[in-house]
Design goal:
alpha/beta, two-stranded antiparallel sheet
Length: 197
């Protein structure tokens, strides 16, 4: 059996799998408001590279960026730490995430990253919190590659983490077609996305 080229467009089934959770629920949501990013924990030189690379995927998707969200100030918050214990220094972390014991959970799982999405009343993304542990497997990651990965994973409600690629970039741009809804919970939405690739 021949395999499709790595940069071949995704099929409807492949797209559906990207947004289908372990319980079988389908959710494909995009941002419903301009994104106001803020990054904590990086030095100035790294931050300059990181921010430039972070912006590119949003620009490609035609998703507006802004300096300030009227409700929360920043709505894409990225926290970079060497080890998860440093998150203890964030005031009201449990209230910010709405999850008690997140720090202990991340440490127990030896995780390198964690993404948390919040949604508005229509189901569109209204906020994203991303936590990165740079003392483990991500220690050698280039800031630009890391930023691209953060942006790609924040742009849509993937059921599990994804790795940036040309087919995913095309899918993201299709999902941001203004003729499509900002939130879809029926797997047939994958057919509409595939038709735009």
């Amino acid at each position: 059996m021949t395999q499709a080229p790595a940069d071949a467009p995704l099929t409807a089934d492949e797209i559906a799998a990207l947004f289908t959770a372990a319980d079988g629920g389908f959710l494909c949501a995009r941002w419903g408001r301009p994104v106001a990013p803020v990054v904590f924990g990086l030095d100035d030189a790294t931050l300059t590279v990181f921010r430039a690379a972070l912006i590119a995927p949003f620009t490609h998707a035609r998703q507006p960026l802004t300096d300030t969200d009227p409700d929360t100030g920043a709505n894409l918050m990225i926290f970079a730490v060497r080890e998860w214990a440093e998150l203890d220094g964030i005031p009201d972390l449990d209230r910010l995430t709405g999850m008690a014991g997140l720090l202990d959970r991340l440490a127990a799982e030896d995780a390198d990253r964690y993404r948390l999405l919040r949604f508005d009343g229509a189901g569109a993304i209204r906020a994203c919190l991303t936590f990165l542990r740079l003392g483990g497997a991500l220690a050698q990651a280039h800031p630009a590659q890391l930023a691209e990965s953060v942006a790609v994973n924040a742009l849509l409600s993937w059921a599990r983490p994804v790795t940036p690629s040309a087919p995913l970039a095309a899918l993201i741009r299709a999902a941001y077609d203004p003729l499509l809804p900002a939130c879809a919970r029926d797997a047939s939405h994958a057919l509409r996305l595939a038709a735009r690739l």
